[in-house]
Specification:
466 residues; mainly beta; Neuraminidase; 3 domains; four-stranded antiparallel β-sheet; disordered N terminus
């Protein structure tokens, strides 16, 4: 893969002697772009398309990478290379490729040691105590907060940090076992006008056979009670394993939502095409399956699945400028990962991993890399137990702008990653041991950072510069 470069006059890349290759490119405007070979079979040209599909002026685009495809021959001079996606977002637009990008992850152990001194010294203050295994934190437009407790309760905290002693009523029946319980609570981006709140939770089987699985519902909050309830999705098949249920909900601002899942501790399910386990799910905000989901028309796959090969994603957030979904996932005894989730991609678990079997430390799968499987951006070995994720894009802690924050459960710290595009440049471990097991990380309306710690006597914490 050649070095990424920019050619504002109309990006062209030379595929060299490779018989087949694929480009990943980013347009600098809101139009869709197309990459194809022309005039030589070894040259790629990037051109924009108008929304009607007609070619128009030459674009300014950055070529991010080129992957050779050894196992596939082009089906035609143009068709094999023409990868067209609709204008998903204004600004940066990734050109989806069927093959993964060549990437070498950064490793936490290499860059955290070299950058031990944080850019901003911070302190954490407990604002609300007495939360039982809190999992997720969200703000309502009036400044009040909602907190889920994994045991199945939804709590309300006033804008001046008073915990309502009475939980919100009408929360669906939740299976509580192992890691299973009530997970994310996220208001719809237009909550102020439509009132929809979304909850992810472990839903018990209606036949009371002891099986359960991650589900998604929405409801409105009225007089301390959830009303107008609609169940939008439930993973299939359910099982009795209390491991790896994911449970993060992210809206993309365009009427779609993502739900992260896990492999249920049954690792091969993450690669099974008719299984929701180990996948990221993409839905319309009313639960309908989008027609442009990568497997929407493939009966051998599940239409809700957006990506798979993920082990257990308990943190997810939308990148503030690219609009892409970033997630992290727990690795097995090492190999916690940071990934960018793209349509139809396979993130490798358990075929490839940087982790190892628990206790024995023996190898899982085939190693750390394989053609056709995505490489993570960043790897934590030993594991820090990644949970909670937020991009910092506020003004209150200016030196943090553009960085990615996440929590460590076993790592007992707030982690800040300094990013250069898709590259992790620097890692800081903050508040080590001061907050406990960090379950949730959110940026508040005041631009300060708020945490929840996973404990039977957990708390809501505010993080601010010392
Ligand atoms: Ca992976």
């Amino acid at each position: 893969m050649g070095a990424p470069f920019e050619d504002p006059a109309g990006a062209v890349a030379n595929a060299g002697e490779h018989r087949s290759a694929q480009l990943t490119a980013r347009a600098h405007n809101a139009t869709a772009i197309r990459a194809y070979r022309r005039p030589s079979p070894n040259l790629f040209t990037i051109r924009p398309l108008s929304t009607s599909g007609q070619r128009c002026h030459r674009p300014a685009a950055t070529i991010l990478g080129m992957n050779t495809i050894a196992s596939r021959r082009p089906r035609g001079p143009v068709a094999a290379l023409a990868v067209l996606i609709p204008a998903l977002m204004a600004g940066h637009l990734p050109l989806a490729a069927a093959q993964p990008e060549a990437r070498t992850p950064t490793f936490s152990k290499d860059i955290v040691a070299a950058t031990a001194a944080p850019a901003v010294a911070v302190q954490a203050t407990a604002l609300v105590r007495g939360l039982k295994n809190p999992w997720s934190l969200a703000w309502l437009p009036n400044g009040d907060m909602l907190v889920t407790e994994r045991g199945g309760t939804l709590r309300r905290i006033s804008a001046d940090f008073k915990l309502d002693p009475k939980p919100i009523e009408g929360v669906p029946t939740v299976k509580v076992a192992g890691q299973a319980g009530l997970f994310d609570v996220v208001p719809h981006p237009q909550y102020a006008s439509n009132g929809w709140l979304y909850l992810a939770y472990a839903e018990p089987s209606p036949t009371d056979d002891g099986e359960y699985g991650t589900a998604l519902m929405r409801a409105r909050l009225k007089d301390g009670r959830l009303v107008d309830q609609e169940r939008l999705f439930a993973m299939s098949p359910k099982s009795r394993r209390g491991f790896h249920l994911g449970g993060r909900i992210v809206f993309d601002g365009k009427g779609y939502l993502y739900l992260t899942l896990g492999d249920r501790g049954e690792m091969q399910r993450a690669q099974a095409p008719r299984d929701h386990a180990g996948a990221v799910i993409r839905l319309h905000d009313d639960g309908r399956v989008p027609a442009d989901n990568p497997h929407a028309k493939d009966p051998k796959q599940l239409p809700e699945v957006f990506s798979r090969g993920n082990r257990n994603m308990q943190g997810a957030a939308l990148h503030p400028t690219t609009g892409e979904l970033w997630t992290h996932e727990h690795g097995p005894q090492g190999g916690d990962e940071l990934n960018i989730i793209r349509a139809g991609r396979n993130y490798g678990w358990p075929t490839i991993t940087y982790g190892a079997n628990y206790v024995t430390g023996t190898k899982i799968g085939e190693g750390t890399a394989r053609q056709g499987l995505e490489q993570p951006l960043h790897v934590w070995t030993p594991s820090i137990g990644v949970s909670g994720m937020a991009f910092y894009n506020a003004e209150a802690i200016a030196p943090w702008k553009g960085s990615l924050l996440l929590g460590g459960l076993s790592g007992q710290s707030l982690v800040r990653l300094v990013l250069d595009g898709e590259r992790v440049q620097r890692e800081e471990r903050l508040l080590f041991g001061e907050v406990g097991r960090v379950r949730e990380v959110r940026v508040g309306p005041d631009g300060l950072v708020y945490l929840l710690n996973d404990s039977p006597d957990g708390a809501l914490w505010r993080v601010q510069p010392r």
